[in-house]
Structure formats: structure tokens, C-alpha cells
Amino acid sequence: MPGPMNTRDLEPGIITDLAGRTTYGDYLQLDRLLSAQVTRSQPPHHDELLFIIQHQTSELWMKLLIHELGACIRYVQADRLEPSFKIFARVAHIQRMLFEQWSVLETLTPNEYLEFRDTLGSSSGFQSFQYRALEFLLGNKDAQALMPFRHVPALHGELERLFESPSLYDEFLRHLSRMGHPVPQSHVQRDWRKPYEKSPEVVQVFRRIYEDTEAHWDAYEMCEKLVDTEERFQLWRYRHMMTVMRIIGFKQGTGGSSGVGFLRKALDLRFFPELWDVRTELSPPPPSRHRGP
């Protein structure tokens, strides 16, 4: 006896007459999205599409990351740390997606990339508006980073707003101050445009939190969420550097940077320095302080 056909009947309720209705393509604006991959190599090089999609999808994930971190900042400003923890869980998965995407680009060999690299002109990831917004949100403030956007007033204005506003870390320190922790006034009110300068007094604030987690559980949890976020960001940076090294070696970047050397310097930057320094200061807690069932 012949077996059943490898088909499936449509259920009666499935809508197939889509005239005048909102469709999947309409809702996602797929006509715009899928027409945005415009290759420039002539004749078209097979691997250029990979390069474009890699960077476009990264920008989409960064857009969501900016959206989520903005919500985190608003919760911290309202002294509501717990709702931000759910957002941090999503941030972690977005960062994982960004990290794993490098493995796709790493299938691009050096000679394949060289066949269309000239079509990039002077374009470079350094010019990513959203990457710069992320760094400002997390606290890496550098006035020079605004320069590539001077010719686009709308982008420059939005970046300038983030540049002049407290970062996520700044807002957390201000929250701790409102909760009675002795955060120095110099870190509660300052010129937010200036690079963050770490403070031994802030290290001691975190030391008290880590040495008595029962009394400061929400603050302790927030500290660990921030460390998680920075660690994943640094791993993303590192994977980027290694991908570049794998594909172009130590060539100069298309945007004029030294390439790998410039990317390596970013690995020395810290968003939340005292949260790393406090680990050196900690001592084993008394037995009664161990958290457990």
C-alpha cells in the first residue's frame, strides 16, 4: 500500500485572500528592507552581499539594544531596579546575537574580500551612528567621536544629546546616592560630557554592597548585570578585532584607522571601572554572610 502523500491541507481558517488586508510583508516593510542590499562591485561579486547583510543586521540589533538600554536608564532614574533586570536578560541575548554574527563574516576569505573592498570607499564601522550611541549610553564619552557626524545635523544632534546626558552607570551611581550610599558628590553631579574618572570612594561603596548582599540585594544584582553587559561588549569588540585580523591582517582600515591596532586599543577602555576594581578588594565574608538555602 502506498504511504500518505507528503503534503498538508490548508486549515479552513487560514486567510489566503489578502487584498485590502495588512500582510506579513506590509507589516515588516519587506519591500524596503529587502531592497536595501545594493552591491557596488562590477561585475557583482558573490560575497559582497554577505558583507552588506552582516553589517545591516548588526545595525538592526544595535537599534534594539539602544531601545532596551534607554528603558533601563529610565527605570534606574525612577529607582526601580527590578524591572530593569528583565531588560538586561534581553540585552544579553541581543549581545549574543551580535557576537555570533562574526562567525558568518569569518567565512569571508582575504582574497574574496579584496575583490570588492575598494567599493567601500572611505566607509568604516567607526562611522556607525548607533555604535557610538551605545558607547555614550554605557559611558564611553569622547568628543572626537562626534566629528564624523557633523555633516548630518539630525544624527549629530541626537548623539550630542546622549553625549551630554548621564550614562547608565552615572544614573546607577545617582540612584545609589539617593538610597543613602556615600557616593561622592563629584560623581552625582558633574559634566557628563567628560570621560568618567574612577573613584576609590565608589570602590568602597561597591565593597559594602558586595560584602552584605542580603542588605543590598537589588544593588548587588544590578552590579552583576552591568558587569555581564560590559564583559559581553568587550568580547564583541575582541571578536571584531580578530575577524578583521583574519580577513585583512594589519592593513589600514578603509576609514583611515590603523585597523587592528586601533581596535585593540578599545579593549583597554572600561565602562564601569569600579565594578572591576572592587573584586580585588573583597575578602571572604563571615560564614553567616554566605547566601544559601
Describe this structure in words.
It is a single chain. The protein is globular. It has twelve helices and no strands. It is mainly α and 293 residues long. Helices cover 55% and strands 0% of the residues. The protein has helices spanning 24-28, 30-33, 48-77, 81-105, 110-114, 129-138, 153-164, 168-178, 200-211, 217-248, 260-266, 273-281.
What's the SSE blueprint?
Elements: H1 24-28, H2 30-33, H3 48-77, H4 81-105, H5 110-114, H6 129-138, H7 153-164, H8 168-178, H9 200-211, H10 217-248, H11 260-266, H12 273-281
Helix pairs in contact: 3-4, 3-6, 3-8, 4-10, 6-7, 9-12, 10-11
Report the oligomer: single chain
Structural class per helix/strand content?
mainly alpha
Mean pLDDT across residues: 94
Report low-confidence residues grouped into runs of 5 or more.
none
The portion of residues assigned to helices is 55-70%
Number of helices: 12
Extended strand count: 0
Radius of gyration: 24 Å
Shape: globular
Keyword list:
mainly alpha; 12 helices
Short description:
The protein is 55% helix and 0% strand. With 293 residues, the protein is mostly helical. The longest helix is centred in the last third of the chain and has 32 residues.
